[in-house]
Specification:
The protein is of the alpha/beta class. Helices cover 38% and strands 14% of the residues. The strands form three sheets. Strands 2-8-7-6-5-3-4 form a seven-stranded mixed sheet, sandwiched between helices. A two-stranded parallel sheet has the order 1-10. It starts with 10 loop residues before the first helix and ends with a helix. It binds pyridoxal-5'-phosphate. Pyridoxal-5'-phosphate binds next to helix 5.
Length: 377
């Protein structure tokens, strides 16, 4: 399907052009009809007809092999999926260079953030995390009585590892690092993160959330799974929701020492869905998918950065599937003005209240976003 040119369409025309007039059925029929490797260029919109660029989904689409696997299993959904999980775990363990006992599956990696958060806050103490950062694990620990020790990012909006190291002590129950960081998209230098994590892990578990790392230019040089293999008290989380384009299927996993894995499982439902399992397994088998998706996300990032540079806007150096930039106006005003142009951007990230995070969508979505930014910035 050709890229729509939203600037030439009014809201009603979009709705008709995208089939979005059937409220609530906007995205699914289009996804189901896109089983080829061709770039997905249709314009998915929310039931209100808006372009959703606030949740860091990959609307460039899942692997065609994953979509085919889900189709092939539609009639198996009367079955429980338990028999399918071991082979997915085996494939993940092989990819990560660990044993299946090192892998804990979750209903999205969010479940692992919650489960590890529950485990690590069995005793009251501190969770150390960057500000602004992704809050799910920090919030899970705070709910259970832990104190959040927030450490501001440095002036490049990267983790300030020296400042974080200075906070680690006997009261530390967990150090949470999101790399690339959400919402800023910045990556910390691998050698520095490695040294930091090894030292911090002597005192408390270090949880490294690599939800977006496969979008980065150098995945292999930056993943910290090697620290788990070497026996450090480190947990690395990954998800099929981001680069794999399977957010709706809720599959994530974490790599950790087998004894930690056994303890974490006690805090999880462990109950993924059948289509998610087969989609994840097929995605891993499609070895060309991640490099191709990474290149397309990077092209989307670069095109967006060109708009921001032309507008003279500051931005954090992005290595994820989103860009964080300074809007020059209060974020609530900016959100409202983008919404009026048909685009939903992410929430406010205190204390950076005139900065905005916007996801990289497919070309049709980005055309709408670029047109909106031209007007609003
Ligand atoms: C940094 C980070 N970690 C984890 C998650 C949880 O994602 P999921 O539960 O879909 O794997 C998200 C979702 O946006 C995220 O941004």
């Amino acid at each position: 399907m050709k890229t729509l040119r939203p600037s030439s369409l009014n809201r009603r025309q979009w709705l008709q052009a995208t089939g979005a007039a059937v409220a609530g059925l906007t995205l699914a029929p289009r996804l189901r009809s896109a089983p080829t490797a061709a770039p997905v260029e249709y314009l998915p919109v929310t039931p209100e007809g808006l372009v959703q660029l606030s949740l860091n989904e990959n609307t460039l689409g899942a692997s065609p092999q994953a979509i085919a696997a889900m189709r092939a299993h539609l009639e198996q959904t009367c079955r429980y999926p338990y028999g399918l999980t071991p082979s997915l775990v085996k494939a993940i363990a092989a990819k990560e260079g660990v044993t299946p006992e090192h892998i804990v599956m979750g209903v999205g990696s969010g479940e692992l953030l919650e489960g590890c958060g529950a485990l690590f806050s069995r005793e009251p103490g501190d969770v150390i995390a960057a500000v602004p950062g992704y809050l799910q694990m920090v919030a899970a620990m705070e709910r259970r009585g832990c104190r959040v020790v927030g450490v501001p990012l440095n002036d490049r909006l990267e983790h300030d590892l020296d400042a974080m190291a200075a906070k680690v002590g006997p009261a530390t129950r967990c150090v949470y690092i999101c790399n690339p960081n959400n919402p800023t998209g910045t990556l910390v230098a691998a050698d520095r993160l490695r040294a930091f994590a090894i030292a911090a892990a002597r005192q408390a578990p270090v949880f490294i959330d690599e939800a977006y790392l496969e979008c980065a230019d150098d995945f292999a040089g930056n993943t910290m799974v090697g620290l788990v293999r070497e026996g450090h008290n480190v947990v690395v989380a990954r998800t099929f929701s981001k680069i794999y384009g399977l957010a709706g299927q809720r599959v994530g996993y974490a790599v950790m020492a087998p004894e930690t894995a056994r303890a974490v499982r006690a805090h999880l439902s462990g109950s993924m869905n059948l289509l998610g399992i087969v989609a994840a397994q097929a995605s891993l088998a499609d070895t060309g998918f991640v490099p191709a998706a990474r290149a397309r996300i990077k092209a989307g990032r670069d095109a967006l950065l060109a708009v921001l540079r032309a507008k003279g806007r500051r931005y954090a150096e992005p290595q994820g599937s989103f860009v964080f930039f300074q809007t020059g106006q209060p974020i609530a005003d900016f959100q409202a003005r983008m919404r009026a142009e048909g685009v939903i951007v992410a929430r406010a990230f205190p204390p950076l209240l005139d900065w905005c995070r916007i996801s990289i969508g497919n070309p049709a979505e980005m055309a709408v976003a670029h047109a909106a930014l031209q007007k609003v910035l």
